[in-house]
Amino acid sequence: MSRVVVTGMGIITAIGNNVAENLESLKNRKHGVGPILYLETSHKGEIPAAEIKFSNAELASMSGIDKSELYTRTALLGLIAAQEAFDSGIGKYGISDTKRTALISSTTVGGMDKTEKYYRDYLNNDKYSHFVHTHNCSDSSMKICDHLGLRHKNITISTACSSSLNAISFGARLIKHGLADRVIAGGTDALTKFTLNGFNTLMILDKEHCRPMDASRTGLNLGEGAAYIVLEAEEEARNHGKDILCELKGYANANDAYHQTASSPDGYGPYLSMKGALDMSGLEPSQISYINAHGTGTDNNDLTEGLAIDRIFGPDIPPVSSTKPYTGHTLAAAGVVDTIFSILAIREQLLFPNLNFRQRIEEISFEPIKELKPAKIDHVITNSFGFGGNDSSLVLSKY
Amino acid sequence: MEAYIRGIGNISPQNSWDNADFPGETVLYDNNRLKCIEPDYKEFIKPIQMRRMSRTLKMGVAAAGKCLRDAKVEMPDAIIVGTGLGMMQDTEKFLTAIIDNDEKFLTPTSFIQSTHNTVGAHIAVMLKCNKYNLTYVHDSISFEEALLDSLIRIKEDHSEKILLAGIDELTDDYFTIANNVGFWKKDINGNTDLLNHNSSGSIAGEGASFFIVSGEEQPDNYARFAGVDIFYKPTSDDETENFIREFINSRGLELQDIDLVITGMNGDMVGDNVYKRMQKRLFDKTPTAYYKHLCGEYYTSSAFAAWLGVMILKTQRYPDDIFINDHKPSGPVNNILIYNQNNNTNHALTLLSAC
Fold first, then answer.
1. Relative to the CA of B269, which of A238, B123, B131, B239 has its CA 20 to 30 Å away?
2. What domain range is A234 assigned to?
3. Structure ipTM
4. Looking at the domain assignment, is residue A208 inside a domain?
């Protein structure tokens, strides 16, 4: 079965509108968390978030859309990131035959940004009825396909915060089984009142800048963003003389099967997903050069993820960091955002720091990386864990 | 890529819970909203849990339980769910609370249970199933995407026993919202003559259709998923026709090997024309059926169609009121093609074959 490689990527987060800008921010400790400016919420000034600092109209003009009022923010973010991925992995090489190019996208709340605004109208009149269809999670995927002219498999996944890693794994499987030549895989989620209030009622939003892997952590910061990567078979990429960004060597999906929102005390699901991805890659734990942790900053996640890392890698833990303090938790997009950061770590041979770390969590053996550091990086594990115990991990390798 | 169907659990607006007397009499409705005939949940859910569970979740858990029991499988190797709208009841509850109370005095339960993966996740917790768990959420092809994943998994390991589902619930709010955008016919007072109205829209429905699928051949398997494929926005009927032809041919069959086509015709005069044109091009002499008068229109109704097809293959009997042309199967039904599409955008084909 063919090896699956990454040949393109695109991203928009609070720390940049494209891959280059995100990399610059990562290198310069420039984070995107701050007071809420764009989301119309009564929590403005009280809860910080990592918003993308553009209005919908500005995002629309960035993506070349002239009817911004017909697009949800989730779709606009998706268009921008997917276009960059498409250009860098497909367009740049002059490939116009996209007949067998699939899109696998993901989102947690779909077009909730419009639904929460117009819900009363939806129920009582047809004033905003053109938005009703945009509530569906498939809406942003369909808009992306329309935008890029894709008419092959158009797939949408929703497994809460692990969604986009599952989109990437499923993309790899489609390629391995010859069911698509190329896959654009990733996810998109805009900041919404729905998710902001949801996480707030769970009391897992930090009112300050989040502190993943730190003993004093009190919660996460929500973010928003979209990111996509282009996957294809190694020989297909080589035939087109493509710059291969990395190889996707392993992936796994497991379920913690413990509770709808809380992780099991020993992080069994996270253990299974990391172990599964490692097993598929054929690598030993000692060969992993960097772990890009899910590391949201919640008490529960960081402890159980840390315990699972200790169980697999202890006592020689590879460098670990969470990049959530840069982008906030971008929900469905989180997995692919971290995947791109992991690819950048491999490409740049740089370890990105875990901002705001001060004190080790007592129950776990390691501290995350605090400073930007050049390092030999051959193999990276990245994790994404979500509500419903959905846990996924990838192994990405230098090509 | 194929998989045997070893177990079934189906909650629908028809009497599909106990399949012993399939096809039975069609359950008739006198309006444009078909509601699931719900089973006694007590057999599958403890009363203390039941209070916190939405209808979708109850239907999902019960149908999963019934399906596992039917297949004599205690622990599936994967749980793969398709749902178009996910957990509408909890989503609406949390959303309404946000709007009504200006983002104050909220409680987390409905938010926690609003994520689209809740059904698959809840089943995993109940079974303590740590295995592969995925939820597909793509419009009218959510079930087919879950099926595609299942068939790929079985190709990767044919011993796997996968719990595969299509599930969507029709809430009061969603019925109203969809009504406001013209989803439902106003000129109809029942489900018997769905195709005889020269109007747009359909009738509303819902359902929870669960299957255990596996690569292992067993004498008591129901039938076999012999293939699935999806495609997006054909630019012409020629393209759609080619897609259907290639789908059938690539599975080693000719058009005439299809004994029955089950279409997603739903009474919408624009959407139904897509099927009619394909029928004329490809299946003029093939018995052709529809199913949405039985279950109503909803995003994962093709999972109900799969149940119907599976039962026809297993029993070689069928409801009399499903045919849309004058042809009925003249001999044994061995191959059934299910063709469902939504507004000529998302198209899906599923091939079901006798074991």
1. B239
2. 4-239
3. 0.98
4. yes
Tokens 């040949």 belong to A7
Helix (H, G, I), strand (E, B) or coil at A88: helix
Q: Are B180 and A126 in contact (CB under 8 A)?
A: yes
Domains along chain B? 3-214 (3.40.47.10), 223-353 (3.40.47.10)
Same domain, A258 and A224: no
Left, alpha or beta for B75 (phi > 0: left; psi -120 to 50: alpha)? Answer: beta
> What's the pTM value of the predicted model, to 2 decimals?
0.98
Instruction: Judge whether A247 lies within some domain.
Output: no
How many domains, in total, are found in chain A?
2
Do A208 and A305 belong to one domain? Answer: no
Give CA separation, A274 vs A385, B92, B149, B243, in Å.
Answer: 11, 35, 21, 39
Chain A CB contacts of B145 under 8 Å are 155-156
Report the residue of A106, A137, A139 to disrupt the B interface, i.e. the one with the largest count of B CBs within 10 Å.
Answer: A137
Q: What are phi and psi of B167, to 5 degrees?
A: -150, 130
User: DSSP class of residue A161?
Assistant: B
> Pairing between strand B260-263 and B335-342?
parallel
Interface probe for A, chosen from B136, B156, B173 (most Cβ of A below 10 Å), is: B136
- Full pLDDT tens readout for chain B, 355 residues: 999 999 999 999 999 999 998 999 999 999 999 999 999 999 999 999 999 899 999 999 999 999 999 999 999 999 999 999 999 999 999 999 999 999 999 999 999 999 999 999 999 999 999 999 999 999 999 999 999 999 999 999 999 999 999 999 999 999 999 999 999 999 899 999 999 999 999 999 999 999 999 999 999 999 999 999 999 999 999 999 999 999 999 999 999 999 999 999 999 999 999 999 999 999 999 999 999 999 999 999 999 999 999 999 999 999 999 999 889 999 999 999 999 999 999 999 999 999 9
Interface of A with B in 229-258 (CB under 8 A): 253-258
At what angle are helices B142-156 and A163-176 packed, to 10 degrees? 60
Alpha helices in A45-111 (DSSP H): 56-62, 73-89
Q: Which of B351, B289, B223 lies closest to B26, judged by CA?
A: B289
State how far residue B195 is from chain A, nearest Cα, in angstroms: 24
Residue type, A259: H
Q: Is A128 on the interface with B (CB under 8 A)?
A: no
Nearest to A305 by CA among A376, A221, A248, A368: A368
